[in-house]
């Protein structure tokens, strides 16, 4: 495989996809976009970053909140789009601009779909079994009122619905990506090593 | 990741999954089961190998043929099962016995599901874009009355229906496997190299 310019990493919540993305960016010495991407989108859209972070990968349904924001948020700019659809259009623009700018790692935000036509972009999907993910989210993000299983189910469902709505594809279907890796079976380090070698176009 | 004892390779028709499986078996010096598996199943079931080959991964619907075979095939042994269900039960037994016997590569036959509870078994899925697969099947298996696209669609559909029926899972869903690789993007050699390293438990 030839050397790749950029990589998108889609991931199940708690699978370590973000950590892997960070390690790949470090190894290759290229920018890493995750929270940073949220800032870009917030800046472009005029919404608060906390709002973008919460709604950017979630279900596209119009809530009372989205109507409230739609009428107050950015008058005259949203052209009758729902808040979610408006954010999606901004998100597409930001991600395509980042891809033009230069090599990078982009985690989440349906970037695999947005950049699907770029041959210089590798698309990876990271997932893991539920026990592994439950242990990781409690260790990394702490306990909450809800059980770890409920938190996983909720996030999984939201990402699935959002992905389906904006891409027409099925979340987690292998054919959406160039490579899919189970981090609970292969280990986070091995996942990173495989992706770094592929990005460099080196022999495995 | 630890060293693995065996590997199942599920694959889209024309993706090169069989070739990759063969190369992995050669590199590791372990048996390769594909057509050979058909012979085993035929031997156990009393059906002709051509019949097993054609029906083993195909849709489970009861055709006139399957009723005809069911009444004539192996009297008193099939216990009222349809031919397809009878073959499936034989297939499960043969694959579980092979796994007990020693290290091996098993291509197809829903072996990923049958051996899903063995921690010493790596499960890989190989797929590729349709243009790549169409070119390969014409080159390797020759032209036929049907267009390459029609041949791909037919095989894809049959494997999908068979897999769904016997496993309750969705064909091609990344979470069914430990690793999924697009051979048209990564190249057959790279896919082989990744799987060999993982099987050996070597650092990538």
How would you describe what is shown here?
Two copies of one chain form a homodimer. The first copy, chain A, has helices at residues 17-28, 35-45, 49-55, 64-72, 83-101, 111-114, 130-141, 148-167, 183-186, 188-200; strands at 6-11, 32-33, 104-107, 121-127, 179-182. The termini of chain A are close together. The model of chain A is unreliable at 61-76 (pLDDT under 50). Chain A has a five-stranded parallel beta sheet, sandwiched between helices. Helices cover 54% and strands 11% of the residues of chain A. Chain A contains ten helices and five strands; from the N terminus they run βαβααααβαβααβαα. Chain A is α/β, with parallel strands linked by helices and 204 residues long. Chains A and B meet through strand 5 and helix 10 of A and strand 4, strand 5 and helix 10 of B.
